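job 3f2a | input accepted
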Amino acid sequence: MKRLILAALATSLLVAAAPALAHEGDDDDWAVQSYDSFQQQYHHIWDGIQHGASDGSYTQRQAQYFYGQLRSIQARADWEQRTGRFDPDEISDRLESLHDRMHVAHERGHERLDNDWRYSGYGQPYGYGGYRR
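job 3f2a | predicted structure (133 res):
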C-alpha cells in the first residue's frame, strides 16, 4: 500500500513539474529569423494557450484574449510576408511580449487555483471575486 501511495505521489509531482520543465531555458529562443521560424513559434504559443486553458490556469476570457492576440500577430506576419516586408525583429518582439504575458497569467492562475479561498473565476462555485453566490 505504501508503494502505491508513494508511486501516486511521485507521479503527481512529475505531472505538476512538467509544464515548468517544458519551458525552462526556452525564453532565449525567441529570435524569429524567417517566416518559417515564425510558424514554429506560433504553434508553440498556440499549444501554450491550450495548456493554460485545459489546466484551468487561464480563464476562458484570458484564453480567448491570448488566441486573439496570437491571431493578430499572425495576420501581421502574413501581411509582411506577402508584401515582402517581413521584419523578424518586430515579429519576435510581439511574440515574446505575448509569451511573457501568458507566463505571468499562467503563474497567477495556478496561485488562484491553489489559494485557500478557492477563487475559481466567474461561473464556478465561488463566483466572480471569490464570493459564494
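job 3f2a | Confidence is low (pLDDT under 50) at residues 4-27, 122-133.
job 3f2a | closed
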